[in-house]
Amino acid sequence: MPKTTEPAPTPAVPLDDAHDLSYEQARDELVAVVARLEAGGATLEESLVLWERGEVLAARCQEWLDGARERLASARGDDPGPDAEPSDAATTAGGAR
User: Fold this and answer.
1) Which CATH number fits domain 22-76: 2.60.120, 1.20.1550, 1.20.120, 1.10.287?
2) Are 90 and 73 in contact (CB under 8 A)?
3) Predicted TM-score of the model (pTM)
């Protein structure tokens, strides 16, 4: 009987190392993850691992952006505190969110 081979397991992408990434590193890796997902061809398991990594990277980017928003507000003297919702002016400044 011919020997059947099972596909090699997908290596686990570390999810807990994102806290060490700079904004630029997390953003660049997130762009690469999205490109791989959009290209298709990955197995379901590989796609799920990529998706999970993308979620972690997106959260890390958001942490950096929130921190930058707080620093800007503090520098302007209108520090709303960590629990305040960003104003429309803060979220649209420079055309970026």
Assistant:
1) 1.10.287
2) yes
3) 0.64
Given the structure tokens 């620093």, which residue do they identify?
Answer: 71
pLDDT band for position 76 (50/70/90)?
Answer: very high
The secondary structure of 19-63 as a DSSP string is GG--HHHHHHHHHHHHHHHHH----HHHHHHHHHHHHHHHHHHHH
Token pair listed for 2: 């011919």
- Identify the sign of the CA torsion 31, 32, 37, 40: positive
- Rg over alpha carbons for the chain, rounded to the nearest Å, is 19
C-alpha–C-alpha distance, residues 41 and 18, integer Å: 26
Q: Using CA atoms, how far apart are residues 59 and 63, in angstroms rounded to an integer?
A: 6
